[in-house]
Amino acid sequence: MTTPQIAWHGGVRVVTDESGPAVTVRSARDIAADGDRHMAARLQTGGEVSLLQDGRSVRVPAGSLVLYDTGRPFKIVMPERQRAHILAVPRALLRQEESVLRSITPMVIAPETADDGEGTTAGLTALATAMLEELIVAEPPVREHLARAVADVVGSLVAEHVGSRRRAAEPRELLWRRVTGFVEQNLGDPELSPQRIADRHHISVRYLQVLFQQQGTTVNGWVRERRLEAASRDLVRSGAHRRSVAAIAARWGFTNPSHFSRAFREAFGASPMQWRDGAHSRARIGDSQCGEGKVGPTAAA
Tens of pLDDT along 127-166? Predict the structure, then answer.
């Protein structure tokens, strides 16, 4: 095993690691002892390793660049002889929130596969790779400037990756609006189900469930809430006393009046009839008070 060569250049640490087969483990005790909390960019120039952090495992073949956090425990498994250049970058140079850095590490980028639709990620990865290789052989006066330049490129890679993730999430937001709009328009259909909603939008039921879970709810729960809200508004509209509670329930997709009454009471703390009668009673009292001059601008006049 070759001892890694370590050098500091303008706050950026550069390591060339030639070793293996071996397993490198950085524990919470190690982190507490040395206080090293850099972000590491590892350029795998030979052999292949696996890196595990935060319960996520990534394969890092030769030619790939992997980003990980030295401030959190990790393990690198080297099943064969391997070689890598490692750039340890101060976290501030990446200009990202801690929650973002935690969510994207470990992150692997391979020049031949990286693609964000415009080639930006692939281009930045190739640039970082070339600059890291140059940094290893550069003359000492140049290394400090080159190290900071590589750190800036790695920071740009992280920013581009974060931006790609956000762009990828935008269609999900549009899908959410389409799905919920469809549900709102079909609340009265008793056959409205997760399967029908998923089929209508050409997605799996599992993906539909995940979509709603990300909003802190479930498909059936969200549909039931919208139906109950619509029914509650119908119950207090003018003339609602001329329609039965069962008819209003059926209008909003509830085929079982008993089930509707139980769900309504759980949601609003009153039965549908109490909700309706209470609203009309309050309306009659308000009208009476206005007529007696007790409230309202007319009385004041």
Answer: 887 888 888 788 877 888 888 888 888 888 787 777 777 6
**How would DSSP label each residue in 95-144?**
---HHHHHHH-SEEE-TTT---SSSHHHHHHHHHHHHHHHHHHS-HHHHH
Domain of residue 271: give its range: 226-294
Tell me which residue has tokens 């909603």: 197
Region label for 240, one of left (φ > 0), alpha (ψ between -120 and 50) or beta (otherwise) = alpha
Q: What one-letter code names the amino acid at 233?
A: R
Give the C-alpha distances (Å, rounded to integers) separating 39 from 76, 210, 274.
15, 31, 61
Rounded Cα–Cα distance for residues 220 and 239 (Å): 30
Report how far residue 270's alpha carbon sits from residue 250's, in angstroms, rounded to the nearest whole number.
19
- Residue 13 shares a structural domain with residue 60: yes
pLDDT for 7: 57
Domain shared by 282 and 204, yes or no? no
